[in-house]
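Pair request: fold both.
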Amino acid sequence: MSHTAHIRSHRKPRRSASTLAVRAGVAGGVLSTLAVAGASGSANAAEPVTQTLELPTLTADLAAQAAQSADATEQAAANYQLQAERDEAAAKAAKQAKADLAEAKKKAAEAKKKAEEDARKEAAARASRTAARTTLSTTSSDAGTTTLGGGDSGTEAGGSTDTGTSTVGGSAATIVSFVKAQVGKAYVPGATGPSAYDCSGLVQTAFKQINISLPRVSQDQSTAGTQVSLSNLQPGDILYWGSAGSAYHVGVYVGGGMFVGAQNSSTGVVERPLSYDPPTGAVRVL
């Protein structure tokens, strides 16, 4: 015990029971309040907190802008596609143009080559005919004469006159003798003898007897020599029917107003007067 405990003024005053009860009640109330609050906080802590976000409202202007942006994107895509198609078409056209140009050049080269070859052949043929005519002219001037034909004098088709006894020299006599010897033989298209002929085949073979090479067909034979009037015919002249260069039939004038030709499959090779089938024109090779 304290040495002052016995002194009354120094003793701690005793708390009354009522005071202690009040203080205990207050403390209990505080503790109860804290307990309730803690429990409430624990309960609130256990529950999830939900936060609501409000999205911005899509106004009419924003909708219009979005639509315009979508249209622009779609138009751009369409433009890219169109440009790609145009580029592809241009590439194809360029490739085709290149191929067409190459083909045109090839055809032009072939045509030029053919034209040059035809010109060369024609020049060679002209030179050959000129040489043959020169040779025949020299031969005819040196050769003797042979009398062909006979009978009364008369007027030939076209107005030429013939005494009836034609004097034919050298090569012409050979041709006339040859064609007359073929009279009675058959007419066969494409034949050149010795047992059958067509019209141009007979003429070509006749001139081969004097080493003159004539074209094979009537069209070409009608321009193989110098054009002469039907009023000034000589034995050995080539007669043609149709236009010069497009004749459809030929024969050989043998003098005395007569000609020999391979007419058709019905008559064969015949000798006929010019009036039987008047020719259109004549050419002279000899």
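--- second member of the pair ---
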Amino acid sequence: MHHYGKELKITDIVQQQPIVVNLLASSCLPCRRLMPVLEQAARRYSDVTFVSLN
């Protein structure tokens, strides 16, 4: 689920499951390197909600 550029309330996505919140800057090289790792983890762990905020 992607909500690019839209307001999102945490209560919209919380469904009694763990959440990983990643705060990043698109200009940050380590942050950009982490994105594929988090995307892979999101595919692997469907019982966890992953949220990235830029």
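Observation on the second member. The longest helix spans residues 29-44.
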